[in-house]
Design goal:
Layout (H helix, E strand, L loop, with lengths): L2 H12 L4 H11 L30 H12 L3 H11 L2 H13 L10 H13 L5 H15 L2 H12 L8 H12 L5 H13 L2 H10 L21 E2 L3 H8 L3 E6 L3 E8 L2 E6 L10 H10 L5 E11 L4 E2 L2 H9 L4 H7 L2 E11 L2 E2 L5 H11 L7 E3 L2 E4 L2 H13 L4 E6 L13 E4 L5 E11 L8 E10 L2 E8 L13 H8 L3 E4 L4 E3 L4 E5 L2 E4 L7 E4 L2 E5 L11 H18 L1
Helix pairs in contact: 2-9, 3-4, 3-5, 3-7, 4-5, 5-8, 6-7, 9-10, 9-11
Length: 566
């Protein structure tokens, strides 16, 4: 298969914003991938399944050097064109088109060559790795026509700009292979949430309905966790989860899936990133105190002060997620406790279809609780609002975030908000949002980003909600600092405009605000008033951020409260 065939699909997808049209386009293409299902990753700009930790890790600067080498234009000329066009993909089209006019008989790029070259780039490490990557990228660009070069560059930078995410690709698989069976979309989605591999799902689809009958999660592999809806009070919590319901403390840590097979333990964040090497203390803990040979657990990692035996806020332990060196020193300084609240798999048997109470019973049998090392989440089961109020108050006094509410008869539903689980927190207006751009500062912060454009999600798109310029610290020791966030965002810059830069939408932050107002200034149609960044959330992914529907609900809720006051 020629790479130009996939580029044609990219261009069709980029030409429409309608989800159903995108699904139809991909559905028409997928049957061509029989026997080479792995190429489906390219439709999302990837070359590995979601659970695979390998990344291309290509910086904007390296792409600029590659375009320079492939086109014959100087790096300064490439940078100048980048500032003019704002997208290195467009820069590649513009500059390589000039070269192509003087080049004849170029061998056409194949998908296999592109795919294997990109995978090779991800495996290059150590001394001389930058030059090796530069050589491979330049060779690809030299062999590409200008249209192909555009999407090669966008793939390298992780920003295809075609509006295809999980829901579109899964919908396309269902449409292509099971057009008459509407129930198959749910089965396809469930299968993906368990095994997080589009190529494998596509392989099952080629085999037919029966291939989806006995799909099980795979220990040692990341999976999409079950998600909780937000509720505003205890009465709404009962409406969502039924009576009686299970109530648990909501800990101020970060969520982790712990997966063990053949005595090998893996830890994954909710964004499917492996953090096993950062937490050898947790690996040792679960190896010793989980009484099973293989298992998959859903839990929260909470930091604590060993001198005071007091839990610490998330901000204190967030540095442990990011730290790759001097781990032993940090373990002593910032120890953590594992709060386990669900089990999905034990000793060869999947447990996700069991009702919640039975899963909790299994946890009580296999977890040997040791305070400040591993315990079950604190829980009550009740239909009494008064009892819940007491439990909620106790949680807040301990410095925890609030409470979780669970339907006691429900299965575990990976990757979905379907009313089986809810969360209740104090009335602090905050949202998890993604940074999509930034503006440079002046004075002492000249040259660095000081204002950040944050966005919510609308299907496959990101809609801006406002600009945040406060909440960050001057020093990293005080919390997330301007310098730290700049270091994180600089390699993610994928475009420039008159105001500042466009960044790859992967960095999640929690933002507090006074209220939300209707505004034509931002693409969402809304704007946050007095927003502040409260936390950088490295463990959270795109599916965790607020949606535009969440924003509408919050605006309506605020309006109702205002009417009540009047």
């Amino acid at each position: 298969m020629l790479y130009s065939e996939i580029v044609e699909i990219y261009e069709e997808l980029a030409s429409t914003t309608k989800k159903l049209e995108k699904i139809d386009i991909i559905a028409g293409f997928l049957p061509k991938l029989k026997g080479c299902e792995k190429y489906a990753y390219l439709l999302r700009g990837h070359v590995f399944p979601d659970y695979d930790p390998r990344e291309l890790g290509i910086s904007t600067q390296l792409v600029i050097k590659s375009i320079s080498r492939a086109s014959g234009f100087s790096q300064d000329e490439v940078v100048s064109k980048f500032k003019e066009l704002g997208d290195l993909g467009d820069v590649a089209v513009n500059l390589l088109e000039v070269r192509k006019q003087n080049s004849l008989f170029l061998k056409k790029l194949t998908v296999s060559h592109v795919f294997e070259s990109l995978q090779k780039i991800a495996s290059i490490d150590g001394a001389g790795s930058v030059d090796k990557k530069l050589g491979i990228i330049s060779e690809l660009l030299i062999g590409a026509d200008s249209r192909e070069a555009c999407y090669l560059v966008r793939t390298l930078l992780g920003d295809l700009r075609i509006g295809v995410a999980d829901a579109v690709l899964l919908g396309s698989i269902s449409k292509a292979f099971f057009p008459e069976d509407k129930n198959m979309l749910i089965r396809v989605q469930k299968a993906y949430d368990l095994i997080t591999d589009f190529a494998q799902i596509l392989t099952f689809a080629f085999k037919g309905h029966h291939a989806f009958d006995h799909i099980s999660l795979i220990p040692g592999r990341a999976l999409n966790v079950m998600l909780a809806t937000k509720v505003s009070d205890i009465a709404e919590a009962f409406e969502v989860c039924g009576k009686p319901a299970a109530f648990e403390h909501k800990y101020d840590g970060f969520r982790v899936v712990i997966s063990c097979e053949n005595q090998k333990v893996h830890l994954f964040t909710r964004r499917l990133e492996e953090v096993t090497s950062q937490f050898p203390d947790l690996v040792s803990c679960v190896s010793k105190y989980v009484l099973a040979k293989s298992f998959v657990l859903d839990a929260e990692v909470v930091g604590f002060d060993p001198k005071k035996n007091k839990y610490l806020p998330f901000e204190a332990i967030s540095q442990r997620i990011k730290r790759k060196h001097n781990i032993d020193e940090l373990i002593k300084k910032l120890p953590v406790e594992l709060k386990v609240f669900d089990v999905l798999y034990v000793d060869g048997e999947q447990k996700v279809e069991l009702e919640f109470l039975k899963r909790r019973e299994i946890l009580e049998k296999i977890i040997q609780e040791v305070p400040w090392k591993i315990t079950l989440s604190k829980q009550i089961i009740t239909d009494s609002e008064k009892e819940v109020e007491k439990f909620y108050s106790e949680s807040l006094k301990l410095g925890e975030e609030g409470i979780m509410i669970k339907n006691i008869s429900s299965p575990y539903s990976p990757g979905r908000y379907i009313g089986n689980m809810a969360k209740l927190k104090p009335n602090v207006a905050d949202l998890d949002l993604v940074i999509v751009g930034g503006e440079y500062g002046t004075g002492k912060r000249a040259g660095g980003l000081t204002s950040f454009i944050v966005a919510c999600r609308d299907g496959e798109e990101f809609l801006e909600l406002g600009k945040v310029s406060s909440g960050l610290k001057e020093k990293a020791s005080e919390g997330t600092s301007y310098g730290e966030l700049n270091d994180i965002l600089q390699p993610l810059i994928i475009g420039e405009n008159s105001q500042g830069v466009v960044v790859k939408p992967v960095v999640i932050v929690s933002v507090t605000y006074q209220n939300i107002q209707v505004s034509p200034t931002y693409s969402s149609g809304y704007a946050l008033r007095f927003p502040r960044i409260s936390h950088y959330r490295p463990e959270r992914g795109i599916h965790d951020i607020a949606t535009v529907e969440d924003i509408k609900v919050e605006v309506a809720r605020t309006a109702r409260k205002s009417v009540k006051k009047i």
